[in-house]
């Protein structure tokens, strides 16, 4: 921004290089402060983490289906300590379990939904040049990367990675080996990254909306990101604090989570005691449940955008959806103890948490119903993003419904800590949220690259993934009803009562292996289409009404080539008297 | 009816009196899940076929669907209120948070550790002192100087119970959090160091039932298995008589 330029070129909304001196490769693509580059950096890393976490699960699935059998071909690569002769050891199984959960939640799905799509789309959809704090944004990404790689590096410790479940309950985690220390440090860094991102997102949405972009005119995706950011901002600090306390217990000899009189492995455990093991659970789940909505809401926002565009209709009950998501955000802070029903809770306190849990199902039902009703009367286009979005609705809905038996404290007793829980939340996250996130990748890929992803490969990705996911997660509900517990190194073979449902283990595992193969078309498609995909013929290939499509393709630094003013609601499709079936938000005439 | 439900929603064969109420709620809530999912699925298939772009080239607003959807939302609200206040909360008050009523109750103490269940009976009805100081001598830390402990029976991973008699099991842990899961009785309770929790039930079927630790407690978690043997009252009395004062 030197004074030697023509004033016209100073227009801050001008695109790219004309007023910026040529950036070096490093500052343009690596240490970039551009929200779109940061979003894409997050995309590569979170997809890598997602793939990594998925592979950990495949190793576990071999052991669960064939307990004690050597893993063919690759089993010996994991070392004599973890898999002697290719046979998995219990401590390695527990490491895989803890790290699968941690990586999928904190390094895969949440960054993909929140950081990737939030970074890339928030400024575009509200008509801003960039985030409010671009350098802070860069710092968020790099701390995420450092925290994530630190987490993975713990596998290379002599003792291995953390092995106490992704929930890291004390006292088990207090007395565990050093992998847990690395887990806590990594989590602390990842949490800092999330907190800074959420501050940035909130400020951006409040401060940098284009003229005319009122809160009523914000797309639902932005609402979803805004609520998500608040949830992260308010729910993560307690876990940050809890992680610090557990670190103190482990490194400084404190006893925040250690009661007096522990007798571990035949010896009196030498600590001062006086702590409380339950404290950790409450601090953890105070984050843990809002975190569920942190996982869900971005995907819900993405799916809403795609459904509105591909039904060529306004979202039915859009106002109700906004109130529902706000209500949901508040309520998500008072349901956490439905994760701890069996810790000896009394009648009043469980009655409270059961009631709030049932109440929170209502806004969820309203949001899903609104999307269902939007389809009625629509002109439904079945393109690739829409297929994924349409699969999201029933799968996510089913995940929500199977939460009801767990939300009622009485039926939670037999189901708690069984495969029913695994089936339930994976329905929400995998066939639900992950398909929704894939929908977003297919939908906005043309904006980011100027090319569409290949249709045939997309179908080859979609159908096998959808089918195998159901073969993976539905049988888990059956196993759980029969009482098969989760986190079983031998898949439950120790227990006679589980023998009737153990044959599902083999079916589930092979479905998961096939699901792995079904991701290969996506990976190939992603890289192939980036350079060789069919070029889009306009900046707005889906004929969408929201602002991100008013940018050049791909959008340059500064995003918009002209000043943006917003004149109407985000889903202005099929308006009466309009010449086209979509009326972009930034066009004065319909 | 029971057979049909058991086929539709297979669970462990029930072996306790109190578990029946839990099963009833389990069937009801899954009935609700089924109705909602099937209803929505039918609507979904119809709407996707009826309004596909190749057939319906222009989108139109509709208001009937709104009406139907608000009925569905009210139906969900009413169903949830009913399940909550008529079933779940009372069940919890009586069976999980509540204590068994009546005098003729068998008391058993269970101390969990990595990776076993220590069980203790007091045939005289009085449990003597126990302390962590004595854990080096015996796994439940029984004070050898307390006369009340003389007839105590301790076992590992084996619980004997007489049929049709309510048992109250008091749960504590030596080291980390475990969970006392007994699927056949529809009973599960976390066992937390520094806290005392309990479960109670009335077994009504002879046989052996497995206790599965249900909270990740370390490398041996998957094999932390115990057995509940439900025997006749006379067999139980005989077992008590034979084992008095014996510590496994």
Describe this entry's structure for a reader.
The complex is a heterodimer of chains A (590) and B (248). Chain A is mainly alpha-helical and 590 residues long. Chain A has one domain (30-258, 273-550): Up-down Bundle (Cytochrome C Oxidase, Chain A). Helices cover 60% and strands 1% of the residues of chain A. Chain A has 16 helices and 2 strands. Chain A has helices spanning 25-30, 35-65, 79-82, 90-126, 134-153, 179-207, 220-251, 277-311, 318-331, 347-375, 384-401, 404-407, 409-415, 419-449, 455-481, 503-532; strands spanning 263-264, 267-268. In chain A, strand 1 and strand 2 (267-268) form a beta hairpin. In chain A, helix 4 (90-126) packs antiparallel against helix 7 (220-251), helix 9 (318-331) runs antiparallel to helix 10 (347-375) and helix 14 (419-449) runs antiparallel to helix 15. Residues 1-19 of chain A have low confidence and may be disordered. Chain B is α+β, with helices and mostly antiparallel strands and 248 residues long. Chain B is built from 4 helices and 10 strands, in the order αααββββββββββα. In chain B, strands 3-2-1-5-8 form a 5-stranded mixed beta sheet, with no helix packed on it. A 5-stranded mixed beta sheet of chain B has the order 4-10-9-6-7, with helices on one face. In chain B, strand 1 (106-113) and strand 2 (116-121) form a beta hairpin. The longest helix of chain B is centred in the N-terminal third of the chain and has 33 residues, at 64-96. At the A-B interface, helix 4, strand 1, helix 8, helix 10 and helix 11 of A face helix 2, helix 3, strand 7 and strand 9 of B.
């Amino acid at each position: 921004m030197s004074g030697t330029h023509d004033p016209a070129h100073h227009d801050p909304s001008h695109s790219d290089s004309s007023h910026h001196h040529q950036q070096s490769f490093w500052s343009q693509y690596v240490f970039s402060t551009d929200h779109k580059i940061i979003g894409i950096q997050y995309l590569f890393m979170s997809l890598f983490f997602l793939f990594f976490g998925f592979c950990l699960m495949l190793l576990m699935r071999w052991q669960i289906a064939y307990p004690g059998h050597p893993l063919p071909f690759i089993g010996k690569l994991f070392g004599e300590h973890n898999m002697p002769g290719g046979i998995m050891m219990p401590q390695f199984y527990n490491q895989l379990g803890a790290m699968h959960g941690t990586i999928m939640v904190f390094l895969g799905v949440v960054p993909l939904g929140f950081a990737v799509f939030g970074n890339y789309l928030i400024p575009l959809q509200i008509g801003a040049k960039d985030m409010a704090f671009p350098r802070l944004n860069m710092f968020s990404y790099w701390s995420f990367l450092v925290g994530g790689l630190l987490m993975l590096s713990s596998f290379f410790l002599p003792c291995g990675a953390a092995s106490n479940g992704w929930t890291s309950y004390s006292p088990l985690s207090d007395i565990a080996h050093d992998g847990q220390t690395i887990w806590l440090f990594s989590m602390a860094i990842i949490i800092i990254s999330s907190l800074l991102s959420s501050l940035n997102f909130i400020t951006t949405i409040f401060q940098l909306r284009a003229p005319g972009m009122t809160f009523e005119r914000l797309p639902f995706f932005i609402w979803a990101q805004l609520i998500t950011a608040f949830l992260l901002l308010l729910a993560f600090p307690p876990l940050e604090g809890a992680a610090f306390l557990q670190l103190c217990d482990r490194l400084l000899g404190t006893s925040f989570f250690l009661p007096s009189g522990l007798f571990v492995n035949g010896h009196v455990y030498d600590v001062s005691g006086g702590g409380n093991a339950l404290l950790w659970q409450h601090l953890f789940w105070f984050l843990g449940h809002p975190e569920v909505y942190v996982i869900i809401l971005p995907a819900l926002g993405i799916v809403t955008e795609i459904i509105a565009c591909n039904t060529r209709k306004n979202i039915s009950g859009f106002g109700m959806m906004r109130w529902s998501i706000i209500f949901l955000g508040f309520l998500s802070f008072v349901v956490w103890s439905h994760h701890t029903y069996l810790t000896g809770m009394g009648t009043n306190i469980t009655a409270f948490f059961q009631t709030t849990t049932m109440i929170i199902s209502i806004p969820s039902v309203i949001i899903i119903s609104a999307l269902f009703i939007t389809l009625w009367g629509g002109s439904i286009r079945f393109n690739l993003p829409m297929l994924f979005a349409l699969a999201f609705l029933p799968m996510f809905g089913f995940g929500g419904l199977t939460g009801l038996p767990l939300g009622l404290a009485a039926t939670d007793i037999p189901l708690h800590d069984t495969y029913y829980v695994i089936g339930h939340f994976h329905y929400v996250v995998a066939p639900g949220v992950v398909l929704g996130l894939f929908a977003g990748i297919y939908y906005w890929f043309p904006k980011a690259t100027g090319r569409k992803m290949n249709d045939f490969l997309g179908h080859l990705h979609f159908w096998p993934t959808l089918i195998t996911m159901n073969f993976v997660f539905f049988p888990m509900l059956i196993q759980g009803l029969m009482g098969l517990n989760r986190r079983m190194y031998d898949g439950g073979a120790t227990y006679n009562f589980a023998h009737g449902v153990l044959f599902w283990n083999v079916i589930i595992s092979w479905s998961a292996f096939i699901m792995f193969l079904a991701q290969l078309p996506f990976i190939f498609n992603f890289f192939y289409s980036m350079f060789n995909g069919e070029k889009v013929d306009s900046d707005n290939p889906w004929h969408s009404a929201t602002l991100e499509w008013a940018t050049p393709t791909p959008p340059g630094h500064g995003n918009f080539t002209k000043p943006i003013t917003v004149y109407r609601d985000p889903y202005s499709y099929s308006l009466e008297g309009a010449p086209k079936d979509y009326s972009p938000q930034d066009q004065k005439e319909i | 009816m029971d057979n049909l439900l058991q086929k539709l929603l297979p669970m462990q064969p029930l072996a306790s009196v109190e578990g029946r109420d839990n099963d009833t709620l389990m069937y009801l809530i899954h009935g609700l899940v089924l109705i909602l999912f099937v209803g929505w699925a039918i609507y979904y298939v119809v709407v996707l076929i009826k309004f596909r772009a190749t057939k319906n080239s222009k989108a139109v607003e509709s208001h009937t669907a709104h009406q139907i959807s608000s009925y569905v939302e009210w139906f969900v609200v009413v169903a949830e209120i009913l399940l909550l206040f008529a079933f779940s909360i009372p069940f919890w008050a009586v069976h999980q948070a509540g204590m068994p009523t009546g005098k003729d109750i068998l008391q058993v103490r269970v101390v969990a550790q990595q990776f076993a269940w220590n069980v203790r009976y007091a045939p005289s009805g009085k449990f003597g002192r126990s302390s962590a100081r004595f854990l080096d001598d015996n796994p439940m830390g029984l004070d050898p100087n307390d006369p009340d402990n003389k007839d105590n029976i301790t076992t590992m991973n084996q619980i004997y119970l007489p049929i049709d008699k309510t048992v109250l099991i008091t749960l504590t842990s030596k080291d980390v959090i475990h969970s006392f899961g007994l699927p056949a009785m529809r009973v599960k309770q976390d066992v937390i160091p520094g806290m005392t929790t309990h479960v109670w039930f009335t077994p009504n079927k002879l046989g052996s039932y497995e206790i599965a630790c249900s909270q990740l407690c370390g490398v041996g978690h998957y094999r932390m298995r115990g057995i509940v043997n439900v025997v006749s009252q006379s067999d139980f009395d005989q077992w008590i008589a034979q084992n008095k004062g014996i510590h496994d």
